[in-house]
Amino acid sequence: MTRRLPIAVLALAGCVGTIPHPDERDLVVARSLAHDATLDRLAEGRRLYVGKCSSCHALHAPRERDDPGWRKVVETEMAGRARISRDEADRILLYLCAVNDRPSG
Ligand code: HEC
């Protein structure tokens, strides 16, 4: 446990500002998009985004696109390239469309 801590801290520091971890502020936005949104679902969306969308190119920061922009790129192109299910695409989109409202997201 103590030996793992430094790695976890480093991994976290590397993500801040680019692919933010969802928090309560993002949940407020997410609830306006999906009534059943929870922090767990947002965290799962981030995990899927990092896990499924980074094999071909660097991850794009959520703030790079507005909600319709993300829907378009994921639904028309990247869901197919990443071979993800409809449900996985929805979770990734919920994360991206919640966090892209942040100035630093
Ligand atoms: C199998 C490879 C592959 C995977 C997996 C993949 N992409 Fe892409 N993506 C590409 C290619 C190729 C391009 C176009 C060239 C580029 O921008 O690097 C692209 C471009 C993009 C762009 C820029 C589009 C534009 O018009 O500016 C975004 C945003 C993006 N991908 C998001 C995602 C997301 C979100 C996922 C996960 C659901 C994902 N990508 C998974 C291959 C992939």
Spell out which ligands are present.
Answer: heme C
Unreliable stretches: 8-17
Give me the oligomer status: single chain
Mean pLDDT: 88
**How many independent structural domains?**
1
Residue share in helices?
55-70%
The Cα radius of gyration reads 14 Å
| Shape verdict | globular
Number of strands: 0
Order of helices and strands: HHHHH
Q: How many angstroms separate the termini?
A: 30 Å
**So how many helices?**
5
Described by strand count, sense and barrel closure, the largest sheet is: none
Strand content: under 5%
- Structural class of the secondary structure composition? mainly alpha
Explain what the structure shows.
- By secondary structure, the chain is an all-alpha fold.
- The chain has one domain.
- The protein contains 5 helices and no strands.
- It has helices at residues 5-15, 24-33, 39-52, 67-82, 86-99.
- Helix 3 (39-52) crosses helix 5 (86-99) and helix 4 packs antiparallel against helix 5.
- The longest helix is centred in the C-terminal third of the chain and has 16 residues, at 67-82.
- The chain is globular.
- The termini are far apart.
- Residues 8-17 have low confidence and may be disordered.
- Bound molecules: heme C.
- Heme C is lined by residues 52-53, 55-57, 60, 73-74, 78-79, 81-82, 84, 92.
Protein traits:
105 residues; mainly alpha; 5 helices; binds heme C
Topology:
Layout: H1 5-15, H2 24-33, H3 39-52, H4 67-82, H5 86-99
Bound molecules: heme C.
Short note summarizing the structure:
Helices cover 62% and strands 0% of the residues.
